[in-house]
Write a structure and sequence with these properties.
Structural class: mainly alpha
Mean pLDDT: 84
Distance between the termini: 71 Å
Number of strands: 2
Number of helices: 1
Order of helices and strands: HEE
Largest sheet: 2 strands, antiparallel
Shape: rod-shaped
Radius of gyration: 24 Å
């Protein structure tokens, strides 16, 4: 037998499991942080008037009375931006 330390299959698998778990936790944490950020009105091309029938009050992203899940700051129920999605 040699004097080198032997590494068992169990040790290798345990290390791989720990590394993959740490990688997943890091990816999840950065995704959560990204989800909490809102875009500026300029980036979302927000305007205080509707685009035809498309307006904040009938958008899935709208949070009454004057909030939005995507756009930072207050928005008008009659406003519009490029993130508009029709409410179901």
């Amino acid at each position: 037998m040699s004097d080198k330390a032997k590494v068992s299959r169990r040790d290798v698998l345990r290390s791989a499991l720990l590394l993959s778990g740490a990688a997943c936790a890091g990816a999840l944490q950065s995704h959560v942080a990204y989800a909490q950020q809102k875009a500026s009105k300029a980036v979302m091309k927000y305007q205080d008037k509707p685009n035809g029938e498309q307006k904040c009050s009938n958008c899935l992203q709208f949070e009454p009375p004057s909030g939005c899940k995507v756009v930072d700051g207050t928005v008008s129920p009659d406003g519009y931006c490029i993130a508009w999605v029709k409410k179901a």
